[in-house]
Recover the amino acids of this structure.
């Protein structure tokens, strides 16, 4: 929170007064006040320009521990930063402030009692204090010099009477609460604080308003480590509001990994803003168990946007019935309600939804335009006619069909799943060799070797002995707040039924992170 316009004017006057700079003609009065500067007691007129008395300026810098060259370069900008430096250096060498307060801060309807020495750690409060000092004194430069000289390491003197100054700070940020503001003020006194997760946004907002950089960065670090379905929205919006790119990037990356497996199963999915959802869906590193799992998650997000009173995640059948209840003359995305959502659904890879039951659900919901579903069905038909060739797919990164495994350390040594595409069956598998060593592989299996499962419920089986596949295997995990990414290169390989052609390239990784998000992306190029 910046000071008001009047306070800035007072502060600028004070900085110019200290720098000895003023506009307009010189004072015509024959008698002018003089005061001594530095250890040599050199006399000087305090409103003359610095350029007219460089020796006096040099002695001022020595007395106040200010860099002479910096002051010549920025004669009006040194005030706040140099005073803060003086006070912060003294705080390291002196015990915590005791006794009565000498500053009263009026903010958020409360009078906060503070001490001068601690107050100057905040740039915002320092500006307001200096402006108040200028208003309350006929010679603000003398008052400030007296204040700074009191910080010099000298022999102890008797305490002078405490002169209280009242300052006011108007905050219009709704994220700043009294509790968060009190925690930020407590930080001025160097006390260790245990910040609760539900207080982080308010403390961050207070630190931003008071310009407490160290506290602000501490809040950002804690937020990055406390990302969860219940916090992702508030943390992301705070990062955007205060332009904290580290926090925004951490929220986006976390949601890329956890949109489908974690957030998509919670009511907090409703709070994800549309712009964030769009960014995540466009990301090439998005994790999903399958294209259908991702589609269901996004449709659930739409359902929750339209049903604000719903407090629990609905069963899948209820969601299908809701969209089916709209008049049949228009698909949902062709209606006014759905037109604004088109960019989101254009990010999805509907050609990766291949099972008959799933396609029937899409038709039943009447959610997508008829032209979309017609194009998907036509692509499937052409691929089946041509032995699985997916001529409509050109780019592995943006168009491949994705499958995923979520590998936790507390699970079994191996984790696998069978996936099917146009009558070809593959087992995707993750193996843990020891607590820090893993490998991921996919291999082709015969239809008659499949265990009874839903992977082959469509009844489509290809008898081709070889199938050209372009694929990539990747794995991501987080260690100490930093994401690690491992991947193979893009590989084009003919998969047969016998070793070694039935096995893909093996992705081997070493990491202590958990969980591990393993993705298998592939498609069938023209063969």
């Amino acid at each position: 929170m910046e000071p008001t316009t009047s306070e800035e004017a007072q502060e600028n006057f004070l900085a110019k007064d200290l720098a000895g700079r003023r506009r307009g003609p010189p004072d015509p009065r024959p008698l002018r006040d003089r005061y001594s500067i530095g250890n040599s007691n050199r006399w000087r007129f305090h409103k003359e320009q610095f350029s007219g008395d460089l020796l006096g300026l040099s002695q001022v810098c020595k007395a106040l521990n200010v860099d002479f060259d910096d002051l010549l370069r920025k004669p009006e900008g040194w005030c706040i930063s140099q005073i803060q430096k003086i006070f912060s250096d003294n705080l390291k060498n002196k015990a915590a402030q005791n006794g009565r307060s000498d500053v009263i801060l009026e903010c958020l309807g409360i009078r906060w009692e503070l001490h001068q020495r601690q107050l100057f750690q905040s740039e915002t409060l320092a500006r307001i204090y200096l402006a108040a000092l200028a208003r309350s004194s006929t010679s603000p430069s003398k008052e400030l010099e007296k204040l700074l000289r009191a910080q010099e390491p000298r022999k102890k003197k008797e305490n002078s009477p405490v002169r209280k100054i009242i300052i006011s700070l108007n905050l219009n940020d709704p994220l700043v609460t009294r509790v968060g503001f009190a925690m930020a003020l407590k930080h001025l006194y160097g006390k260790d604080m245990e910040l609760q997760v539900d207080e982080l946004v308010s403390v961050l907002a207070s630190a931003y308003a008071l310009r407490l950089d160290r506290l602000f960065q501490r809040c950002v670090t804690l937020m990055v480590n406390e990302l969860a379905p219940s916090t992702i929205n508030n943390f992301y919006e705070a990062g955007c509001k205060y332009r904290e790119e580290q926090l925004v990037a951490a929220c986006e990356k976390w949601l890329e990994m956890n949109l489908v497996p974690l957030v998509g199963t919670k009511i907090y999915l409703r709070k994800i803003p549309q712009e964030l959802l769009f960014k995540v869906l466009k990301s090439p590193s998005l994790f999903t168990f399958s294209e259908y799992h991702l589609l269901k998650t996004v449709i659930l997000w739409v359902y929750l946007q339209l049903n604000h009173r719903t407090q629990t995640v609905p069963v899948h059948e209820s969601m299908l019935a809701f969209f089916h209840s709209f008049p049949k003359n228009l698909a949902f995305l062709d209606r006014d309600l759905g037109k604004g959502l088109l960019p989101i659904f254009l990010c999805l890879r509907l050609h990766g939804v291949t099972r008959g039951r799933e396609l029937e659900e899409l038709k039943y919901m009447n959610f997508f335009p008829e032209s979309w579903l017609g194009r998907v069905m036509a692509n499937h038909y052409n691929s089946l006619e041509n032995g699985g060739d997916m001529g409509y797919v050109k780019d592995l990164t943006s168009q491949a069909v994705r499958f995923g495994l979520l590998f936790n350390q507390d699970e079994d040594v191996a984790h696998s799943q069978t996936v099917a595409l146009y009558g070809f069956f593959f087992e995707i598998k993750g193996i843990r060799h020891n607590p820090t060593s893993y490998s991921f592989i996919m291999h082709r299996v015969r239809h008659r070797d499949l265990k009874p499962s839903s992977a082959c419920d469509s009844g489509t089986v290809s008898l081709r002995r070889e199938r050209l596949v372009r694929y990539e295997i990747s794995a991501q995990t987080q260690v100490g707040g930093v994401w690690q990414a491992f991947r193979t290169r893009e590989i084009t390989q003919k998969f047969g039924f016998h070793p070694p052609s039935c096995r893909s390239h093996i992705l081997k990784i070493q990491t202590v992170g958990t969980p591990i998000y393993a993705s298998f992306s592939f498609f069938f190029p023209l063969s």
Summary: Residues 396-523 form a domain with the Immunoglobulin-like fold (CATH 2.60.40). The chain has three domains: 5-168, 288-385, 396-523.
